[in-house]
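Exercise 7.
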Amino acid sequence: MKKQLYRVAYCLVALCLLQSCDKGLEELNINPDASSTVSPDFVFTKAQYDAVGNMITGLQGTMQYTTSYNDVASWGSKYIFNQGTAPYTVFSNAYPNEINEIGEVIRALEKDANQVNKLAIAKIWRVYCFSKITDLYGDIPYTQAGLGYTQSVFKPTYDPQKDIYADMLSQLEKALASFDTAKPTFGAADLIYGGDITKWKKFGYSLMLRMGMRMTKPDVALAETWVKKAIAGTLIQDDADIAKITYLASGQVINQNPLAYWMLNSDYLKADGVSNPEGGKFYDTFINYLKKTNDPRLPVLSVVYVNGKPSTDVSIQKGMSANIPNTKPADFVTYSEPNPNTILKLNAPMLVLTNAEVNFYLAEAAIRGWYSTKTAAVLYDQGLKASMRQWALYGNDGVISQANIDTYATANALITSNSTAKQLEQLYTQFWVSIFPNSQEVFLNWRRTGYPALTPNNYTGNITGGKIFRRMLYPATEENLNKENYIGAVARQGENTFLTRMWLDKE
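Solution. The predicted structure, written as tokens, is:
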């Protein structure tokens, strides 16, 4: 009997110990530094950082802003691609980051009617994120994108770009109509506008204007419809409404200007004009144009190192040829490179969508007869002047005097007596200068308009036959891990090459 009691007692103690052990293990399995629920505000901030920082930096060379004597480093300007991941960057980074993040934000907000403003802003940002991807690659995963965690969709289908644009514009229009001034917004969690609904409306309609203009090649009637819808709304036309993210000079990398960070760590960190690891300098096409037109932005953008010190002296600025073979030239130090006091500042802003860009689009609309409130000449002038004023956002070294702005604007006024083609050439050549350093946006607009009329670089060994890129490449991981849908996209759109023309680029 005693033995039986001992056995029972032993089992009870063991059971209690086991339960106690389980309880402790359950607590150990909980990460004290993580949350089991999404905080929309925090994730939205991250989605903004990730989307703005996700870019094809090599397009600086494609748009003939910068180049390098190094063949590998200058794939964008020499069209040589034997290794690396540069053409895949935006696609590969977008889905696990900003697309997944903004999807989580929307799912967390859409069940609460009180969060209608946050939801509208998140949906506008989602359109911005997807527009960047499809504009570079064409057909992409869209309707099934970001559903791996919630619906186990690990092999999303690719949607046709035409359908993607139709849905994005529809989503944008609905989001803009849903704002309610009586409801809360993101506030400080919104890095661009601090949750200001009025400014987000301007951003949304300006994004609609940009996307409407994108469609002038494949469907000019549809383009006109959406451009006029955007104009009927409220647009970014004042310096105070520029969509931008401001960064910090120190701290975590995510808080620093991503373009400046890339440039510094690729080439210009030593700041002596000689020790550039990737061999980068400004392209002669860009510097020559700035000098030829006496552009007051030249000393703001460019320096030449003299005795180890950066000089903004306009007379010595000199761009480097993209045809220099894979050897460092003896006069390397004499070539211009980005100004460390403006472009290379880690706390410089990233301009997402500006009043300069909007005014240039409106000028095109006026030339096409889609807008009559102001003339093309006035809108072009407004865009040009705004593009010069915005350099003041980079600090004192970016300030251009009003007198210099006015002199340049007068000397380069739009010649309205020219043909439509000639006016568009003048307009979008100025766009090329004015939107720098946003080379990705300039590339997308060049692909649409053909301006500026850049001379392609037929460098020995290039893979495009001396032609400028038309699109970026789907990453090899898609061919391996999402093969069936990848094959379907290629069969519909064309080969996965730099020269394949997507729907937006059809002639």
